[in-house]
Amino acid sequence: MTVVTQPDVSVIIGAYEAMPYLVECLASVEAQTIDPARMEVIAVDDGSTDGTGEYLEEFAARAPMSVTVIRQENSGGPSGPRNVGLAKATGRFVFFLDADDRLGPEALERMIAMADKNGTDVVLGKVEGVNRSAPKSMWGKTLDRADVYTSNIKFTLSAQKLFRRSLLEQHGMRFDESLFTGEDALFTLEAYLRANGVSVVADYTCYYLVGRDDGKQVTKTGSYTLRFDSARALMKLIADMVPAGDKRDLLMVRPFLITLLPQFGPKFLTDSEEVRRHKFELAKPLMDAYWTPGVARRLKVHERLRLHLVAMQRPDLLVDVVAFVKAKKQAAAVLEKRGTRLYLIYPHFRSRAARIPDEIYLADPREARPFLGYREAVANSFPRRALRKVRRTLRRVLPGKGFGAAAA
């Protein structure tokens, strides 16, 4: 009598037009140091025409671990294949592996051990870029338990992590198939917030993020409207799951900085007037609902200034600021209050016509410290006073409105 045991991990691979990258991807799965009996592979060919499906079937026929290949018509995005794979998974954990990326040999063994040791529901394994950039700020130290509010894990919301499957099933978590970019951010942040702890493996490269040279990388495609869809969904998730206050503001920094702000970066200078107008229309409800002093004070001056102008619906002023930032000029500084206040002189500073509050240009201690003559106020009282001043100023400028209310 054969006893069938539950695998430790289900590796879910969604694949579309993945050749020849798929060859190294599957080789990295086969090279895993855990016993093949401890894992299963569920690969979903999403309507490929380049031999991806055939190669998956060849791999399934010779691989030492259980491999299930599902072939379906193209779904148009990564969410569908991941959801199909998740529905078939039987492992204690699931890991979502993109077909053009690859795993470090000890990746699954180390991440599973970390989850079992700490009872955590999500494990982040160090990511390294190959011919592309990869997130870096969260790999400073291996952490048995990381907090989403005090660590930088909120800045890596891709799906390539180890998730405890019971967590996903308990909350009915699936990828949002209506989103064509940012769907993984929504899924991963919800998992962080619902998890019984998150661990970080930072002392071993678990995942190699491979840049494709054929232009088919999903993250490189898609119109700007899809980015606004992604920002809107992530902001709503945060607002639904986290009460208003410092914790919500901390998390809101991520969609404002990573998803929304790039729409008002250098590309904005070459956008047509119609596209500029449309971007401001799409941004307005998000700024009105979610842009707060708590988010603003956590940004650098040029980031805060650009988003303030978006909130104020002032594309005319924004163009000057974006051009200044694109030129990579160092903003001059003005020191006041015995050196404890430092303003960065970006365009329209103290312009009577622009009427932008001084506090928008006020650098926080981290941004101010490199400037000669700056001295930090005692006991961190300066940031608190500055924040109170921002709030008072904006109440005068926008009576009866929220921080992000648009001016007429």
TrEMBL record:
Family matches, as CDD domains: Glyco_tranf_GTA_type
Source domain of life: Bacteria
Pfam families, A to Z: Glycos_transf_2 (PF00535), TarS_linker (PF22181)
Domain TarS/TarP linker: 228-321
Alphabetical list of InterPro entries matching this protein: Glyco_trans_2-like (IPR001173), Nucleotide-diphossugar_trans (IPR029044), TarS/TarP_linker (IPR054028)
Record domain Glycosyltransferase 2-like: where: 10-171
Protein name per its UniProtKB record: Glycosyl transferase
Organism in which the protein naturally occurs: Streptomyces bangladeshensis
